[in-house]
Amino acid sequence: MLYFWSINNAALIRIKKILATIPLFLAITLGYSQTEKCTQTIRGRVVDSDTQLPLSGVTLKITPGTQQLLSDGHGYFRFSQLCSGIQYAITATSVGFDSLITDVTPTDDNMITLQLHHGHILLHDVDVVGHQQAVVTANPVRTVSREQVSQVQGKTLADIFNTLPGVSMLQTGTTIAKPVINGMHSNRILILNNGIRQEGQQWGSEHAPEIDPFVAKDFKLIKGAEGVRYGADAIGGVIITSPSPLPIDPHLSGELNTSYQTNGRGAVLSGMLQSGVNALPGLSWRIQGTAKRSGNVRTADYYLGNTGLAEYNGSAALRYSLPQSVFDAYYSRFYTSVGIFTGAHVGTLDDIQARVEAGRPFETYPFTYHIDVPRQRVTHDLGKLKWHRDYTDGGSSDIQYGVQRNHRQEYDIRRGGRDALPMLDMVLTTQTLDANYQTPLYKNWRTQVGTNLTLQVNNNVPGTLNTPLIPNYDSFVGGLFAIQRLIKETHEWELGIRYDFKTFDAAGFDKYQNLYGGQRDFHNISGSFGGVWHPATEWQLRSNIGLAWRAPNANELYSNGLHHGAALYEIGDAKLSSEQGYKWVVSPSYANGAVTVDLDLYAQFINDYIYAQPSPGEFLQTIRGTFPVFRYKQADATFFGADLSLHYRVFKRLDYQLNASVVRARDVTNNGYLPYIPSDRFDHRLRWQLPINSEVVSNTYLTFAHQWVLEQNRYESGTDYAPPPPAYHVFALYAGSQLALGNHPLEAGVSINNLFNTLYKEYMNRFRYYSHGLGREVSIRLSYSF
Questions:
Q1: Is residue 133 one of the residues assigned to a domain?
Q2: Model pTM?
């Protein structure tokens, strides 16, 4: 007993000695910290040891310390707040590469290169490349998840983004849709298609974006006025669709996607092949194609006549990569032929008023794949050449040239059997030249400067024997911008300014053969100021104030005729001036293990807002039928709203998702409401991850979804042909699983939309006067990667 006491007593004495040294150690440490601040930085770049190409997304850790980060799109990384005189170990890890540990002692101008070697197992289905541009902005950026994209596989671009809060669709019937962001659509939303501004005849309500969603793998939405970075027309936001990076692996890979929808009996087939070139390291290629066909779709209890579509698309990409430069070439063709609901083209004034009152067609239509008149055919060609350069100091530059040709034809019933002649035949050719330079990060500051030039020529093809809806015109736009960013550990700030000049020269003949048009010049300044603050690991706050503008379009200025695809008569105003919008967005975000909350609050004032106002009681009767009249007007307008996304992990395998959006818009000039503003909507989802995991089956889930759309009661009575439809509820089921076929995955999915076959009308559907929304639809989807 005495022996054990002596041992414990000795141990106690040693512990006391150790404890006695702690204050001395703390004093030395604090004294050192007060005299020696840790202000050193280590900058570097990660490259492939075989090709010397930069590697993005590489995980980097530094010890001692807890800093961990990913290499950016150009392979660069940066560790800050390091102490001089201390040797640090940097560990770099990435799938398909051996881990690398490098010892570095920080100095004033550290710039190191980490070369990763391929591991013994090379995963050919993993793209490991650099030069993937990241979206950098103080505005909130929302990404459509891969699962959400797969659930609407085979549908339109608007359907994909409709899964995000704050986004709805402007529809023309059940087959044509375009995205609406916080009440904004068409030319107030800028769409970047593989880095190129999408330029078509997007001014029409039934002119959907000519983009094949199968080309892209990344779908991002920027809310806020982004006029500085992306130029005029970005008043409502920016949609970005980007393909996956081209592979550097010389092994052939690809994917095959197919889907079938019962409503319309529509089928989609899309395939892609890609590879690097073994004989020429750094060269890679990709080809892709899509075919889609469907017939007349059905509401809950009747078919909609002439609502079939046919679509055939293809694209090809080529990339040559050097250690510090990348050359890209890309080409795509989009072709669609789509029928316009026959019931929207009505014979007499009494007939159209009776149909609006009935709210549904009087005729009974069978199912058919045949596309008759009225219909539209659109071919959109896009070509792109791009050169990217990374500099050894961390700076980079880009030069990009793009050319697009949009050929739109709209057909209608004509006398004398001349239905083969289009009523509208327009070719819009757009050339763009973009150049920018981004400085290296210097004392937490980074600067970006650039210019954008756009030349457009629109010509009406002769021989239609019809007065064109819009005139021929030439348009030139030139812009210069500069963005300054301050990047700190817990916060970032951004200040930008831009100047644009646009000249617009139009010439056309009206139905009386009178010449109209002339030259209009527009110019304006855009600006933005915002920041991102990370007060804690779980919290993030974004706030941005942006000024953007857009000039009126040719149809808003000069249209005076029947728009066949939209089944309405449009009248423009040649005296319209530019819109100028001011938007403030505040976006707090919270995320921990069980709860994720994203909230976007926005307020926007638009000076001289342009909109098409229905003119109730006014109809135009022609040989092709009787059509409602819409007149373009201009007024000051305000938009206020909130978008909420909440995700909650209820149990280990059960998740709840809520998306909600509310927008309030008013005509300030006339103290009234604006037409065609989305009503409040709430989307609920319960997702159950099934406990099925084996070498063959994995990631099996079942999702039950409910959408509640309220009645739009904020409208001016007597200013529309029919009041907004009542609120409605629609339900859906989604199921999916991943199967292993050898070493390659096969993703399978089944969905049932409008589960209970509800008969409803959507306020944002321009054909709601005559018909209801889409009935029950069962979809089967397969996606195979190799």
A1: no
A2: 0.83
